[in-house]
């Protein structure tokens, strides 16, 4: 199918690059790939004829319709320290440009990696008491299977809260009751501004915006969306001396971002913005530069053949009925709800698979 659905290029989405952990309970493992697997992916893509380019060069090729060779852009979300310690040396060795999208509250040390805090709470406990929908409930999590079930239940319940502040308040309370230090998680997991500045000095590295507080933008007011995008850019400009031109939407699936956010990003002058809608790039994406799809590389499936299928465009094409572009909900192109999201829909599918397998 690749000649028909392969498009002109692709944007790869990663989060963590770090050595594999041995823990049985790892609900966020799908966000982690090993350094060896990253190196093998780069070699595989290069051998397949892809040219590695920066976000700026990707945009130029889409705007100028310059498609003499299929290209790929490597991106990482959230600014984790392992991006510097493990991913950067591999990109440097292979001379591959890449981008890191940074939510500025993380290097400011005011951010909440609530999904990690939730994992740590459940990992340490045999049961958890939590008020859910007005009722106090005791959730048993003694076995690995039960821990995955409780994580899944609480994760999606938290994502359904009416506001980000409500969700974060619940997680702070839960973490405090079960002795998990939320602030320490951010400090341990995420790069400081000094570390980001050191990386940004390398021409291979692009630092992009990822809002301030890593919020689900669709659940906020237009004024808050604009503030998150403006203030996130201003904080990066203050730290690095130049404003970011590129943006990644937090979570990025169809429940988290849509036409309103695409329009605001364009109005604020971002030259590209990426979603987590799964797919490759086509010439038509020149008209949707603030609604670009990406291909997630999932830590649960670290085999080259999965990467081959994803970058071929076949899986995304089948999921959206062979439509070439499906990233502008509410416009003439339309948008399906089938795009995968490493921080969203993929959690459901992977968790269900883990639970079925026991």
Describe the structure concisely for a colleague.
The chain has 358 residues and is of the alpha/beta class. The protein has 14 helices and 12 strands. Residues 327-358 have low confidence and may be disordered.
What does this structure look like?
- There is one protein chain.
- The protein is an alpha/beta fold and 358 residues long.
- The chain has 14 helices and twelve strands.
- The strands form three sheets. Strands 1, 4, 5, 6, 9, 10, 11 and 12 form an eight-stranded parallel beta sheet that branches. The protein has a two-stranded parallel ribbon with strand order 2-3. A two-stranded antiparallel sheet has the order 7-8.
- Helix 2 packs parallel to helix 4, helix 5 runs antiparallel to helix 6 and helix 5 packs parallel to helix 7.
- How many distinct beta strands? 12
What is the level-2 CATH architecture name of the largest domain? Alpha-Beta Barrel
Which CATH class of the largest domain is shown?
Answer: Alpha Beta
Strand content: 15-25%
């Amino acid at each position: 199918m690749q000649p028909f659905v392969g498009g002109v290029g692709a944007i790869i989405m990663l989060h963590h690059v770090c050595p594999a952990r041995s823990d049985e309970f790892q609900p966020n493992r799908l966000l982690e790939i090993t350094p060896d697997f990253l190196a093998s992916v780069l070699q595989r893509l290069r051998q397949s004829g892809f040219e590695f380019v920066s976000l700026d060069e990707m945009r130029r090729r889409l705007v100028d319709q310059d498609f003499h060779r299929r290209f790929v852009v490597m991106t990482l979300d959230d600014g984790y320290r392992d991006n510097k310690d493990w991913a950067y040396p591999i990109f440097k060795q292979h001379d591959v440009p890449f981008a890191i999208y940074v939510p500025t509250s993380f290097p400011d040390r005011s951010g909440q990696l609530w999904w990690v805090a939730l994992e740590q709470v459940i990992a340490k406990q045999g049961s958890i008491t939590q008020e859910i929908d007005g009722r106090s409930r005791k959730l048993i999590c003694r076995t690995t299977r039960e821990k995955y079930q409780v994580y899944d239940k609480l994760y999606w319940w938290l994502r359904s809260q009416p506001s980000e502040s409500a969700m974060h308040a619940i997680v702070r309370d839960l973490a405090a009751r079960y002795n998990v230090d939320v602030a320490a998680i951010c400090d341990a997991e995420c790069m400081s501004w000094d570390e980001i500045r050191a990386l940004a000095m390398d021409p291979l590295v692009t630092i992009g915006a990822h809002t301030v507080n890593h919020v689900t933008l669709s659940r906020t007011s237009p004024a808050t969306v604009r503030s998150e995008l403006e203030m996130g850019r201003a904080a990066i400009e203050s730290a690095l001396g130049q404003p970011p031109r590129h943006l990644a939407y937090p979570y990025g699936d169809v429940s988290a971002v849509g036409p309103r956010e695409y329009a605001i990003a364009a109005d604020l002058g971002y030259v590209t913005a990426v979603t987590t809608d799964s797919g490759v790039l086509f010439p038509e994406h020149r008209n949707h530069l603030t609604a670009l799809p990406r291909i997630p590389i999932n830590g649960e499936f670290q085999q080259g053949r999965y990467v081959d299928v994803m970058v071929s465009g076949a899986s995304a094409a089948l999921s959206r009925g062979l439509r070439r572009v499906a990233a502008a909900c509410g416009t003439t192109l339309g948008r399906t709800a089938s795009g995968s999201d490493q921080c969203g829909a993929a959690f459901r599918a992977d968790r269900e698979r883990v639970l079925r397998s026991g």
